[in-house]
Every structure is written in C-alpha cells, then in structure tokens.
Model the fold of this input.
Amino acid sequence: MKVYEAKDIRNIALAGHAGSGKTTLTEAILLNRGVINRRGTIEDKNTVSDNHELEHERQNSIFSSLMSIEADGIKMNLIDTPGYDDFIGAMIAPIRVCETTLVAINASSPIEVGAENAVKYSKEFNKGIVFFINKLDMENVNYDSVVDDIKTTFGSSATIFELPVNTGPNFDTVIDLLKMKAFKYTDGKAEEVDIPADMVDRAEELRNELIESIAESDEDLMNIYFEEGDLNDEQIAKGLKAALMENAIYPIFCGSAKLNVGASRVISFIKEVTPSPADAKLMEGDPEVDANAKRSMFCFKMFSDAKLGAMNYFKIKSGTVKPSDDMINESNNSSERIGQLFAISGKNRIEVPELKAGDLGATVKLKNTHINDTLHEKGMDVKIKRIEYPNYKMRTAVVPKTKGEEEKVGVALHALQQQDPTLVVEHNQELRQTILYSQGELHLAVAKWRLTNRYKVESEYIPAKVPYRETITSNTRGSYRHKKQSGGAGQFAEVHIMLDPYTEDMPDPTDMQVRGKDIYDLDWGGKLCVLNCIVGGVIDQRFIPAILKGIMDKLENGPLTGCYARDIRVAIFDGKMHPVDSNEAAFKMAGSQAFKDCFERANPQVLEPIYDVTVKVPETFVGDIMSDLPTRRAMILGIDAEGKSQQIKTKMPLSELDKYATALRSMTQARASFDAEFAEYQAVPMNIQTELIEEYKKSQEEE
Ligand SMILES: Nc1nc2c(ncn2[C@@H]2O[C@H](COP(=O)(O)OP(=O)(O)OP(=O)(O)O)[C@@H](O)[C@H]2O)c(=O)[nH]1
Ligand SMILES: [Mg+2]
Done:
C-alpha cells in the first residue's frame, strides 16, 4: 500500500442503529472496489469487518473495524462501527477521528436511537454527515416517510440527493438528482438509464430544492441562482464543497446493501466531494494537519488479542510517523517507541513504511498507551481533547468463580477497561465489592466472554450492593456515663449531647452557649456539625476530640444498618469528669454510646441514592414507559418532545436503575435509551427500611 497525503485521504465512520446494514454495506463497498472478490454475509459469518468469533456468535458487530481501501489515487479509511447501544464506545471514537459520518438508516423502521446517537456525536465533534437509506429492497418500505422522519429528527439540512425508482424486492434503479440521470444496478455496477417518465416532474422539483440549498451556502451563488434559476456544474461543485465543509447540508443517498444497489455511488460521492482531513474543520485542541510538522497521534481503538498481543489504532494528527520514532504519551508522560506500522483491512494488516498526518493505521507493542491517549514528539505542546464517554447504564458486582482469583479478575478487568472506556471497574471499599459499570447486559456478556477466553479467568456477576446512608429526622437529647471500677485505675466519663438533623443555615440553639462550631464535609457525602457548648469546665477541653472520635466511629458504622451516617448536628452541652479516672478512651466510649442512643431515638432514616434519569423514547412507547416507571419507584418530573421522540425526565433509586437498561430494552425492542446521573440521597420507604434493618441484624448475628 502506498503512503498517502492528507488531501488524498477520506476517513469515513459508518454508523447507525444495529441491523441497519452497515457491515453488509461495507462488504458491498469492498467488493465494488476489488478488495474482495466474493461477498461475505452476516448469516455466513464471513464478512471482512465482523471477524471476531463473538461477532459470529451474536450476528452483530461488537468492535469497530477499520478498512483501508485504495481507489483512483485516494485512500479511503472506512470504519464499520457497531450500532448496538451497549457498544456505543466503539462508535464514538471512530466518529471522532473521521471527517465524515456515513449514517445508515433502516428504511423498514422508524428512526432508531443508533442513528440518533451517530448524528448527535457527529454534530458534537463538528463532522460532516451523509445519510444512506438502506434496505429499500424490502416489501412495503416507504421512501418518502423515511425522508420525512430524517428531516423531523435531524433538521432541514438533510437534503435528498438520490431518489429510488422501484423500491421493493426488484429494487435496482436510483435517480441521481445532481446529474439528473437514473442509474440501474447489476452486480453492484451502475449503468445510466432514462429517468422514468412518471418521475421526471418529481425529480425536477427535488433537484430545484437541492440546487437552492446548495446556493444558500454562498451569497454569490444565491445571486446567480435568483437570476438564472439554476447553477452550472462548476458552481454546484463549488457550493456543495462549501456547504459540506460548513456541515450546512447532510446529503441523503439511498440503496440496498444486500442487493449492492447504491453503494458505489455514495462512496464515489464521498471520495469526490466530502472534505479530506486537510480540508476539514479542526476541533478545539487539534493541531494543523501538516505532514511536515512535529508528530502527534491519537489512539481511537485498542484491542488485545492472545495471538497478536495489543494493537493500537491511531489517527496521525500531525507530522509523519515512522517505525522507531520516539514519542511521549501525553496522558501518563511515559515514553514510547513506535513499532511496525500497518494499514488495516478487517483483520488483515499491511505493513507500511510511514503514515502521514490525516491517515489512520495501527501499530503494535506499545507499552503503556491506551484508547483515548495522545502520543507526540518531544518538545511539542499538544492537547488533543480526550473523548468524554456517556455515563454508565448499570452496575454489576464481579466475583471470581474460584476463590483466590480476585486479583487475576481485577487485572483482567483493568485491561478490558483500557480497551473500552465505557466499561469501568472499581474496587469499592465501602461496599466491599468489585463493581463493573457498563452500558448494558450485552456489554457485560462480552466482558465475561473476554475474561474467560482472552484472560483465562472465570468470573461471575452478582448484584451490586447499594451505598445506603443513614440520618435522623428529629431532635433528641441524651447522655451516657461510662464507668468502670475493676481493681486498679478506673475509667470514668459522662457526656450529654443533643442531636438535630443538619441543614445549611440552621439557627444555633438558643438554650445553650455555643463556644465552638465545626462543620465537617464527610468523605461519603453530607455533613457533620459539631457544637461545643461545654461551659464552666465540666469537661476538660482536651477530651472534646476524643468525644468527637467516638461519634465519628458511629457515623462510619451507622447504628441502623452499618452504612455511613450523614447530615447531623451534635451539640455537646454537658458532662462530668473524674480527677483521676477520666481519660480519652473513656470519653471516646461515652461519646460513641451517647450518640448511638440519641440516634436511635431521633426517628432515624435510611437514605438511598437517587438518580436523575432522562429516558428518550419513540412516541409509540411513551404510554408503556410512563406506566412502568412508577413500578420502579420512579418519580416522573416531566416530558418534552424532541423530534419524533419524547424525553421523559424522572428520578429513580439506584437499586432500580441497575435493572433498568435491560427492562427498557425489552419494553421497546431496544428503541429507547436513557442517561442517568447521580442527583441526591432520599429516604427509602418504611417497608424497605425495615427489611434493610432486619438484613443487617441477621448479618451481625451471623458474624
Ligand atoms: N433486505 C435487506 N437486508 C439487509 C440489507 N442490508 C443488511 N441486511 C440484513 O440485515 C441484517 C443486519 O445487517 P448488518 O449488516 O449486520 O447490520 P449492521 O448495521 O452492521 O448491524 P450492527 O453491526 O449490529 O450494528 C443482516 O441479516 C443483513 O443480511 C438490505 O439492504 N436489505
Ligand atoms: Mg455491523
């Protein structure tokens, strides 16, 4: 494979909902370009991009797949991405490094979340968008209503470039509105034919709309268009380039990946008209795309395989990278030496002597570089923005099947996380569990498969515990006298305290003299306020810290369920000491017991974490979702329309949220999505509190 300059490169991320036909389309493109001479299919498990045995098993893409294709002096780096929501991480990074996103739309169903996410991230990263309406060979597809859907969902920048002639099982002809010619496909090859007479008017009308939107990109063109009523080819080309560069037009193409109709034309369009890495807009923090500048590269994929070891996939952001080049990893400051460089076609690697700015490729044997990291030449100041991945959708605890393999599981999970930032592992001290944060059940299944098959360690998933909290709801006073007289030196301490639920700006008590006030931010959230109201030296000041220690012990190990307590004000207002027998240990004990006693009488409450959850769902499912939410103790806050879907805002307890990804998927055939973010702690209902207290008692007795 040749070495290419940025101007001769096109980077294309192929994204869209699961099953919209991306991998099938990729296969058609590879065939049309002569990369393969027989097409594989999903069903035969022999496509170039779905080459992992897990992908064969699931019949879905799971990992992104890079295909570098040479055609007429242009190198096209096409990345086929998975559409399943669980693997969104493998869609986001490719969109980030490509200039154009080719969004596959399934003509046989309404716009789906996979397509919405593809567009959302493309817009966020300022990338060009081209739509490909696929599956037009299916019975009963309605092209016009698909276009309507695209426009209402993604805005009027979406513009028809092609019109299908004979949708349905015999589909083979498409009208190109720019050329005003029809193309009939046989075995992937297009032959020019006349536009059917009954479609000429419609085609002309749509062409005018298209030319008008192209003219809108440029004032000069707009003037010409108003005067002449049309633009010539040169003017169209100029306006179109400008419009695409500004992301002012999202062209809509169409076809059938299965029948290899339309694939070659959309690819020619991308090759001829969409911006190269040299032309495209830079994102904040990106260096100029210049092969002669200092070297920098961004890792958009990492995959560790038992046979090949770890492969890092990169976009060269600036300079020219060669084997043996020394680089610095910006995120951890370690130094790396580049090994062999490869262009990639599915699982085939083609060694190349160098890669220039704008190109995509892979390398091996890096020591400490992972997805989302930037490597750069020494002495170069580059801050390529790291990708921010979506919040996790569910928590699960992981345990090894064999006792004693905790560390092996931990190391393997960590390796998985370095390849997939949407899978996050945490050794949670509070819950005493290894928690895996993931995007859903399929994501978890893939992780488990890889633990077993790649890292040779068997694991099991169990429910993640909930980090409950405890607090009080009313005012109490109480005291405790600690007294021990066993033989020699005795122990004596007496402490009187008052507890209140703590709120910000609460007034100080009026019947006590407040001599000192400390407010502590607790490590586990919430506050502890301590009022020192000791007067007349009834307790020596040096014992106050010991009392506080005793109280802290109880906060860390809440009296109800052993969980952390929070948001409490303690006033220490009276007590007694003994000239000989009082010491710190005695006061610690008295403080701790006085606190426990008061806490238990102050209408204590168990709190649970509540999340702000936004569910995005197609209109047809709104009723089902709304009636299901209350069964999950969720509070509905409101509902907003967004295009053809609705956004339901709710608050949901974490214990329910952990099951929601799976439930939502089955309620909506994977057509809804949600985002969750921690909001606050709230009281659990009484019946749940009673259960939790019982459970805790039982576990204490067992110990
Ligand atoms: N009728 C018809 N079926 C198609 C077409 N394109 C793909 N399919 C079928 O749709 C199914 C899904 O195709 P894929 O290519 O795996 O879809 P994908 O978008 O890669 O799916 P993910 O990898 O899960 O995101 C397969 O059974 C294909 O054979 C098409 O144009 N027409
Ligand atoms: Mg696929």
Q: What stands out?
A: The pocket of magnesium ion (ligand 2) is lined by residues 22-23, 50, 61, 80, 82 (CB under 6 Å).
